[in-house]
Structure formats: structure tokens, C-alpha cells
Amino acid sequence: MSAAMDTESTYSGYSHYSGHSKKAHRQGSRDRHKSPRSKEGSRAEKSVTIQTPPAEPLLGNEASRVEEGQDDNWGETTTAITGTSEHSISQEDIARISKDLEDSVGLDCKRYLGLTVAAVLGLLVFLTPIAFILLPQILWRDHLEPCGTVCEGLFISVAFKLLILLIGTWALFFRQPKANTPRVFAFRALLLVLIFLFVISYWLFYGVRILDPKDTDYQGIVQYAVSLVDALLFIHYLAIVLLELRQLQPVFALKVVRSTDGESRYYSLGHLSIQRAALVVLENYYKDFTVYNPALLTASKSRAAKHMAGLKVYNVDGNNSSGQSRAMIAAAARRRDSSHNELYYEEADHERRVKKRRARLVVAVEEAFTHIKRLQAEEQQKAPGETMDPREAAQAIFPSMARALQKYLRTTRQQQYHSMESILQHLSFCITNNMTPKAFLERYLSPGPTLQYDRDRWFSKQWTLVSEEAVTSGLQDGVVFVLKCLDFSLVVNVKKIPFIKLSEEFIDPKSHKFVLRLQSETSV
What we know:
Blueprint: H1 2-15, H2 19-32, H3 36-45, E1 47-49, E2 86-88, H4 91-139, H5 149-172, H6 186-211, H7 218-245, E3 252-258, E4 264-269, H8 274-288, H9 298-309, H10 323-379, H11 390-411, H12 420-432, H13 437-445, H14 455-458, E5 464-467, E6 480-484, E7 489-496
Parallel strand pairs: 1-2
Antiparallel strand pairs: 3-4, 3-7, 5-6, 6-7
InterPro entries: VANGL
Membrane topology: Multi-pass membrane protein
Keywords: Cell membrane, Membrane, Transmembrane, Transmembrane helix
């Protein structure tokens, strides 16, 4: 209970100012926002646009805007900065929301329509051989020839072949869809059309040659049903080759570049269509690329804005001409020589602060873990009712590391990805599995892959595929397509893997002979 009360008090301190800090913050806010232009700029930065559920949540929230002017003693009396935001929505936003809703409804209808067609066709395929065998028994049972031993053996063959076909069809076709593609999968549609034409042709032949004349050769009818099942098994083998085996051999190398920060990865793919290659790229993006952090991009923009704000152009003649723009460009070029020094010292100061707060965090976490180890040794001697579970232990040691962790996350601009509840869950997980402090800090010391964070913070349900070629066409050398989401885009460049000519050269083991060359100045 005491651990829980300490955690609650720490959490309240984690979210609010003390009285002295509120006054200091308000006074600092008055000093920083004296001009009306700065007020309008801050008000514009705090506006939030409402998005529909299918869209990706905006990552560039107010929590990511961290001021660079904080010293190393920040947070001694305060642990968090709270603020207000203004929610606004325009007519364009309403129109975009309605369009996204219509698109989502259309995608759902398209997906369910495809599943319905596949299910109906599959039911027709499995019921057709059974109908071929049962219809003569129902319609002209008395006129049929007796079914001998060979005919009864064919019943067992049909049953087991249908069972194998059912399992193979379930494993290949009836899988949970991973995404909604803009176009149908060409090979899958081709196979469905082929199966439909094949079954219809069998029904036409059955109706003309068996149903109309009421054929009495029942063994031949059963053999006809067996031939249908065999043909369906061969079509299933063809589906495995086209859908699964064809793209296994790497043929193309894809370079994927994120448009905002330039992070890139390379992937090898086989013969795939552009839309299927886009799905493979997105599946690998969530586990290979680091999480997109727009707060890291604000430093360069603010630095460029600061340089342009320092330039003043005076209109002496009162004439609006292009000379003003030329003067600003010339002045910016003259100041370019000194800007690299400012960038160098800014980055050096930022690295110094990051290293310092990282050292504080590592020490705080190691001390907290030593406490929980000591508590575990002491709790073994106490009554069972006084022991703590992993959640209570995490709540007990979290206050000792909360301040150092929060200051480090704010310095590295990662605080928007880690809530207090997620940190407590991760800490409880590490305690449960006897993980070291280094294993606990691995998630926070460096940005991890996108899948590592909460689903609501990274998951994007809506991606747009932009390509000059048809998305159902195959990959080719030099093809470029773009995957766009709300905040950034992935540019994919396709290159064909070159043909490699490998030759062989034989070396005789007896040819490894050496001679010692002696010189007068050597010591040998």
C-alpha cells in the first residue's frame, strides 16, 4: 500500500507544476510572447486537426516541441510542462473526412464481396463431385448397374482426395487478409476464373452425356467424379506455384527511402506486382525503420527561420520590385559562411547534454534495480501477505528513476512515444523476467523500430500507392513508386539484380613452394 501511495504522489508530481514553477513559467511566457505576432504564431502552432479513424494519428503533437534553452538543472522543482491546445476544423477537413469515410466503406464492401465470391465458388467445387455421385442414386436408382469392389474403392479415393483438397484450399486461400489492395490480385483472379470455367464445363458434359440419357454405368459415373477431383488437385498445385513459389527467387533489389529524414533500407524480392511489392515494403518498414519522429526535424527548420528573421530589407524608394528578394538572397549567402559554426556548436552542446542525462539515467536505473533485488531478498523472510507482485514492485522503484528518465526522453525528443503506463508495464515485464537494468533501458536509450511502440501511436490504416505504371504490372528495372501516408512518404526505387558470371580456377596443392631469400643485412 505504501508503494502504491508513493507512486500516486509521484504521478501527481509527474503531471503538474509546483506553485513556484507555475509563476516562473507564466512570467517566462509573458517575456517570450510580448509581440502580437508571436502570440499568433504560438496559437497557430497549437491548432490540432481532427482526423478520421482510418488515418494515421499525428505524431507531431505539442509534446514533441521541446525548447533548446533548458539547462541541466531543469526539472528540479518541476517534472512536466502542461499546456492547452485549440481544436479547430474547417470545411476542407469536413470534406476530407467524408471522403475518407466513403473510401473506407468502399474498401470494406470490396473485401467482403471478394470473400463471398471465393466462398461460393469453393462450396460449388466441393459439392460438385458429391453431386455427380448422388444424383444417379436419387433419380434412376433402379436402372443402375450394381457397384462392384472397384467402384466402392473409388468412393474411398474420392473421400480422401476431397479431404486433402479441403485442407490445401484452407491453407492457401482462406487466410486472414493483411491489407486491402487497390486492384485485384491478377493470379488469384485468374485461378478463380479457371476453376469456374472448369467446373461449368464438367457440369455441361455431365448434363449432356449422363443426365439426359440416364447412363446406367455407375462405375463410369464414379470414375468421372474421380477425374474431376484429380483435376482440381492439379489446379491447386498450379495455384501453389503461381502464388507462393514464383516469387521466392530474388530478382530485384528495392531501395526504400523515407522522404523526411532520408533513412533507407534495401530489400530483395522476386517476381511480384507493384502493389504486392508495396505490401512487402510496408510489412518490413514497421520492423526495420526507426519510428518516425517529427520533433527531430524541427531544429533545422527553426534554425533556418531564425536566420531569415534576422534579415531586414528597407524599401527606400517606395517601389515594390524584385530587388528586395535579391537583396535577401545576397544577405543570406553572406551569412551562410558563419551558419556552419552555429550548427557545430549547437550539435556539440546537444550531444553533451544527452550524454550527461544518459549517465544520470543509467545510474538511477541501476540503483533502483539494486533496491528491488534487496527487497526481494528481504521479502522472502516475511509473511506471504506482505510480499509484492511485479506490478507493485515496479510502482515502488519507479519514483526513483522517473525524473531522470523524463529529462532524458525530453532531451532526445522521445517523450511523446512513452506514456507513464507503458513505462510501468515495461518495468513490470523486466522485473518478472529477471532482466537487467541494461535490458530495461534498451527501449529508451535509442529509438527502436516502429512496432516497438503503442499501436495507436504508429499504426496507419491508410496508405496511398502512387505509380506511373499500373499497380498490377510486374516489377521492372528502373520502376519508381511512392507510398504516402499522413506525415511522410516512402520512395521505392527498383533495380534488377545483375547477372553474375562465376568462373573456377584450380590451384594444385603441390604448387605451394617457397624459397627463403637471405640478404647480408638480415639477422637470419
